[in-house]
Amino acid sequence: MRLITLTFLFLIVCCMPANAQNGSPLQFLSKVSQSSLANPAFHNQTEKLVIGLPVLSGATFGWNANFSPNYIFSENFSYSFDNFYQLLGEPGNAASSATLPLIYLSLLKNNKTYSLSISEKILVSGNFDHEILKFIDLGLIPYYGKEEEYGPISLKAQIYRELAFSYAQKIDKNWSVGIRPKVLFGKFFYDIENMYLNVQTLNDRQLMQIIPNGSYQISGPIDVQFDPLENKTIIKPDLTASDYFFKFKNLGAGIDFGFSYTPNQNTTIALAVVDLGFTTLKYRSYNNTFTGTIDYAEENLYQSTNPDAPNYFEPKEALLALTDSLPYVTSAEAFTKRQYQLLPVKINLMATQHLNDRMKLNFSDNLSYHKGEAKNYLSAYFNILLGTRFELSSGVNLYNTEQILPGFACSYTGKGAQVYLATNNIYKLVQPSKAKNINLCLGVNFLFSTQPK
To answer: Among 8, 387, 412, 417, which residue has the least CB neighbours within 10 Å?
Structure first.
């Protein structure tokens, strides 16, 4: 249960490195073959074999939320749930994802581009009743004799490995099409939806009760068992070497497809659908239901506001102690049928107008949709080639028609290597602790000539 708690806290504070490539100006860097992640119809334009540096090349970090890490952390890294509560002032929500590349290869040959990639994907999203922050900050004593309900609290996280093969074909001088089929290997999944905490006092017994209501699903390299001696459900890690590589158990599938159209030598229009797919759950997957109450005798109640006063319990430690009690009121049952989880699907529309050989204008609309929720980036960027090796792109993004974010991207392409960086919010790249919306992508590619000398 500590793993679940730390996952929840990590989401609240800074989360894991929303929706990969959404709103990223990487797609406008024509010399960077990873721009095809936004549309598989884009071709490798280096005229070389591209090999990405493992772990780094194509790594992405994204975060979209109605709060930033500095809501809870101060400059000296101390934390305050009261500060978080006061600054938030409304239910909290966040959606985030990360990509960690392991292998990336791309080759252009005879008007065809072939690519292979293996990467780790992380998706996290959640929301919570901000009143629970006040409950954590004050402790139990102020609520003795009262009846309260907190919620809903929801958190969904999944980690999976993606094996993708990409193929792009120039049909003629105007049209190019591309497709990227994917095999997905589920690694970890956690989903708690609409959990509530009820707090009540039994005056006749001088007893305070916290009653969790709800259930959650968990899947991964874990072992879930009921311990009859301690009368609790135990979740513990059970990682084997095969879990790190490819395990053909919780298999899923996905596909990207797109096209680009060049009506004249200066104009290009492109459209793509990305991450149309699903992951599955059955192997080492469990339904867990809260079935009891967590009881506190009056003499065991604590406060979390004044370290110098009696019965003080630090908020972070009090929260961990509470979650350590949850296994005693939880029942678990293994999945009997395979379940399917849809990925956030993305639709990317882009138009490019070349002003001359060195300058161009780019416009794009990147829409992400998942379970009735949509996120949209409308972007306008200006690109310029400085010399023969350096490309610079800068512009603005309109996020959900509410926020204007200044973006930036650049790449340097040498004879044997290439480096690149892209972000949709350059201001918060300098001050990441204050970022509510940011997408960052960076990488290093090695370039190998395929032409005979």
So the answer is: 387
Query: Positive or negative CA dihedral for 155, 159, 160, 162?
Result: positive
> What DSSP string describes 143-170?
GTT--EEEEEEEEEEEEEEEEEEEEEEE
d(CA 443, CA 347) in angstroms, rounded, equals 24
SS3 55: coil
Note whether 412 and 45 are within 8 A (CB).
no
Tokens, residue 349: 């529309």
Q: pLDDT band for position 22 (50/70/90)?
A: low
Contact 98, 58 (CB under 8 A): no
Burial (CB count <10 Å: 0-12, 13-18, 19+), residue 262: middle
From 70-79, 113-122, 330-339, 358-367, the region with the lowest mean pLDDT: 70-79
Phi, psi of 94 (to 5 degrees): -155, 150
Residues 379-406 as b/e (b if ≥16 CB within 10 A, e otherwise) read bebebebeeeeebebbbebbbeeeeebe
Q: Are 405 and 372 in contact (CB under 8 A)?
A: no
CA 365 to chain centre: 20
For 78-117, the pLDDT digits (tens) are: 888 998 999 998 999 998 889 999 999 999 998 899 999 9
Q: ω before 152 within 30° of 0 (cis)?
A: yes
Question: What are the tokens at 73?
Answer: 């952390």
The percent of residues in the chain predicted with pLDDT above 70, rounded, is 93
Pairwise CA distance, residues 401 & 269, whole Å = 23
Give the 3-state DSSP-derived string for 234-255, with helices as H, strands as E and coil as C: EEEECCCHHHHCCCCCCEEEEE
User: Tell me: the pLDDT tens digits for 38-74?
Assistant: 999 999 988 889 999 999 888 998 888 999 888 888 6
With a cut of 60, say whether residue 16 has pLDDT above it: no
Are 368 and 376 contacting, i.e. CB atoms less than 8 angstroms apart?
yes
Q: Within 13 Å and on the Cβ side, how many CA atoms surround 114?
A: 4
Return the bridge partners of 366, or none.
348, 377
Per-residue pLDDT band at 378 (split at 50, 70, 90): very high
Residue pointed to by tokens 């399917």: 340
C-alpha 174: how far from its chain's center? 36
